[in-house]
Design a protein that fits this description.
alpha/beta
Length: about 230
């Protein structure tokens, strides 16, 4: 499968919180039945909707679905994100994990454990972390690609002038170039001016968790964005 070609992407942000496992499974089954491939999640989804203020509900539901559907892992591609996960419940953004090398490694390890997989097909830097040298973040992303833990990388909510692709080594054998940034106007601390919290909808994920629109299929999805 050519993972570089535009694909339909199913956003799973509310799985495990606003969308229960049974409904989530039905949506995932509908996506696969309709030929969909990409699933988008993040290690922080959705701490703000979880009474315990903790992370990982979306990834845990995806992991449960993969275990319940033999062969499903080969049929889908999984994109997840690091940066925004609060390390202390109900303490975002003060305890957000950030993008240091250790934080990225720990974040990906947790995602793999919850998903029950040995690699993810796409890893996004969910937002900028100006407290960490960009070279450190780019370096650990490259390390994960080299190990095969991550197949492709990207940056969301990064100012265009700081986008890692501008500083990353030229792509060559064994290297996967970063994706273009999404929403380059977002604030450097990972928030969007005026909304007081994490961005509730990435351009990458557009699934409505409210249920199907009249006359539509159960899973409403959007095409992979042309960011940048």
């Amino acid at each position: 499968m050519n993972i570089t070609a535009p694909q339909i992407v199913l956003g799973t942000m509310d799985f495990g919180t606003r969308v229960g496992p049974e409904q989530a499974f039905a949506i995932l089954d509908s996506l696969v039945a309709g030929g969909g491939v990409w699933l988008d999640t993040a290690n922080c989804y959705s701490f703000w909707a979880d009474p315990n203020g903790v992370d990982g509900a979306s990834e845990r539901v995806l992991g449960a679905w993969l275990r319940a559907r033999p062969g499903a892992r080969d049929a889908v591609r999984i994109a997840t994100k690091v940066r925004q996960n609060p390390l202390v419940p109900h303490s975002w953004p003060d305890s957000a994990e950030g993008l240091s090398a250790d934080a990225v490694r720990a974040g990906v390890e947790g995602s793999l454990r919850r998903l029950g997989v040995d690699h993810v097909d796409m890893l996004w830097a969910h937002a900028e972390d100006r407290g960490v040298p960009l070279e450190e973040t780019v370096g650990v992303f490259g390390e994960l690609v080299s190990k095969g833990t991550v197949l492709r990388v990207g940056a969301a909510n990064h100012a265009a002038f700081r986008h890692p692709a501008r500083r990353a080594p030229r792509a060559g054998p064994g290297r996967v170039p970063p994706q273009a940034p999404c929403r380059p106007g977002a604030a450097g601390d990972g928030t969007v001016p005026g909304d007081g919290g994490p961005r509730r909808e990435d351009r990458l994920l557009q699934l409505s968790a409210e249920g199907p629109a009249p006359g539509s299929s159960p899973a409403r999805v959007a095409r992979w964005p042309r960011c940048g």
